[in-house]
Amino acid sequence: MACSCSHEPAPIKKDSKFRTALWIALFINLAMFLVELIGGAYAHSSALWADSLDFFGDSVNYAVSLAVLGAGLYWRATVALVKGTVMALFGFVVIGKVIYAYMQGIPPEAMTMGAIGVLALIANVASAVVLYTFRDGDSNMQSVWLCSRNDAIGNVAVIFAAIGVFGTGSMFPDLIVAFIMATLGLTGGYQVMKKSLQERKAYVAENEVCQ
């Protein structure tokens, strides 16, 4: 009896323009990840570290999108599982940084923090502009554009945290923003891992029935 399972459709033809846009966005986000990681350590800013987590997550997202263009569901889910795991681990690192900064009691350097926050906002706007053409494409194209667009909110939060630190001389605006962003990284990583495991399980179960 012939197998009646519904197999995945043939991969769509790779879009060279979308691939180029992804590479540009990937390099921008990797560069800002390093800038905020180093700048956060220099300025003693947990919020910058948390935002660097966001840039790292975006970099992985773009790299995953590049890697899975035309790939099958199982491999897309497998790569997404790795991405979610790394995002969650980085979230724990940032929370640890928040606790350490609180124990140290050293307020961050507001001017450096604000300057890097503005640079990060410009970087995310640049990424969004590059990906704007693909905002009405498939779910993969939409997700990467929305990712850059929504990240600008996090950059604005960092800038406001810097203003709060500058105005009050307190570390708490920085710590609050960092904790919120780290929590979002943890929950986002968990959701990605959960969905990827479900997709892998469904794929294996379907193929076992077909054998």
From TrEMBL:
Topology with respect to the bilayer: Multi-pass membrane protein
Subcellular location: Membrane
Keyword set, alphabetical order: Ion transport, Membrane, Transmembrane, Transmembrane helix, Transport, Zinc, Zinc transport
Residues passing through the membrane, by range: 21-43, 55-74, 86-104, 110-132, 152-169, 175-193
Annotated ranges, domain Cation efflux protein transmembrane: 22-198
Pfam families: Cation_efflux
Entries under InterPro entries matching the protein: Cation_efflux_TM (IPR058533), Cation_efflux_TMD_sf (IPR027469), CDF/SLC30A (IPR050681)
Gene3D superfamilies in the record: Cation efflux protein transmembrane domain
Name of the molecule in the record: Cobalt transporter
Origin superkingdom: Bacteria
Record bears the keyword Transmembrane: yes
Major site of localization recorded for this protein: membrane
One GO CC annotation: plasma membrane
Keyword Membrane: yes
Signal peptide per UniProt: none
